[in-house]
Amino acid sequence: MAMLSRVAEHLYWMARYLERAENTARLVNVNGNLVLDLPKHARPGWSSLIDITGSNALFHRHHPNATENQVVKFMLADDDNPGSILSSIRSARENARTIRDIIPREAWEQINELYLKTGANLASGLSAKSRYTFLKQVILGIQQIAGILEGGMSHDAGFEFVRLGFNLERADMTTRIIDVRSSALMQGQTDALKPFENILWMSVLNSLTAYQMYRRHMHAAVRRDAVVKFLLQDALFPRAFHFCLDEVKSCLCRLPRNGKALATLSPLIGQIEKAAPGSLTQSELSQFIDELQIRLGQIHTAIGATYFGASGEQSQSQ
User: 318 in a domain, yes or no?
Assistant: First the structure.
């Protein structure tokens, strides 16, 4: 059955904003733990979170310094930041509100409740003592919504747009984390930092909840080359770049008029399968990831042009 473009677009962006909020919560939580685990001279600070989300210009327009308090407030609660947790959940709620007859009622109720709870409990999120609990509740709340959508929504064309949104957002965040974190790690590799290198790479895995699966499947110590290979090329881990691309392809294959989007996607899948990212120098890796992100943007544009009538009205994707 044909699906109205506006419905498809709302489903797609609802999923992207939910995934964005969860990713942001993970980043802030992991960075807070990393700061506690490392001595002062080896701590990465908080500015890297702004780099990962690509919000440098917006952040520094209002904040001269990337202190912990300023960065955390910007990432959690800033209304001017469309990628903040509160803004993302609000945008997901607004998209869900317009398609309440398409998604399960329980999903709409949970999204609405998550938005209200997040707004009411922001003070605890901004406090270092209670931040972990606040962010964990956000993560679990979004995972619950994803579970309701998976188990309670017909797996028709509408559901495929939900999957597209989740997986494109995940793929984008995975590349951003690898790029910014690996760059910072390589730039800071002095003799003083070398003893903590494995902790820093563990934080990269933890940002994507990937540490346990990495150890299970890679059978290797936590080190740069193996981590980069796993997060970009593993075909079984749900937050690995390759896995996300396979999911996007699966979604598109179930949708009509998929020629343009698949033609854009196929070269990217081939590129990631043939690459040897773990053997690249840092400058080569950064250039490689830049190419991946450009191609992700092209896929997003192709999906928007085919199914939404444009690149998508909601073009705030960072």
Answer: no
